[in-house]
Amino acid sequence: MINKKLEDQINYQINRELYSEYLYLSMASYLEDKSLTGMANFMVVQAEEERFHAMKFYHYLNERGGRVVFDTIEKPPVEFDSPQAVFEESLEHEMLVTSLINKLMDLAIEVNDHAAKSFLNWYVDEQVEEEATFQGLIDKLNLVKGKGDGLLMLDKELSTRVFTPPVK
Predict the structure, then answer these.
(1) Which residue ranges make up each domain of the chain?
(2) Cα–Cα distance for residue pair 31/40, rounded to 1 Å
(3) Radius of gyration over every alpha carbon of the chain, rounded to an integer in angstroms
(4) Taking the model in full, what pTM does it have?
(5) CATH of region 4-158, choose from 3.40.50.11540, 1.20.1260.10, 1.25.40.10, 2.40.50.140
(6) Which of 98, 76, 92, 101 has the alpha carbon at shortest distance from 138?
(7) CA-CA-CA-CA torsion sign (155, 157, 159, 163)
């Protein structure tokens, strides 16, 4: 049986992961509207990853005897200053998610839940990858000043991304 405080925080995280899915779909829509279909594809795949993250928490909480409780998911922003701003906001968002995962890990340590610590290690590692990916894309956008042929080349590169569920 999972600690009630940890159960509540995992429920909160599930809802944050679902918000992340909405956010990335909203970003995809914005990019699609700007005819940056490769970047839009990247964000759709990112949204699929976030749903996978939410469902991983969902199954874990059920396995531990907890109950998943869904909350209202707030509306994400729909307008952005530029394609580059989309990726900068994505990095900021991933940094927030990292802080939430770290707080979950701190709580698992506090309540001495070894199973939760083991489970959360996957998310800790995943967040390192998420932040590095967005930082790398921002670095590339900075190199091309977020426009011109460089922007179109990056858009083409991002069109090849596909969602492959990680091995559990």
Answers:
(1) 4-158
(2) 5
(3) 17
(4) 0.95
(5) 1.20.1260.10
(6) 92
(7) negative
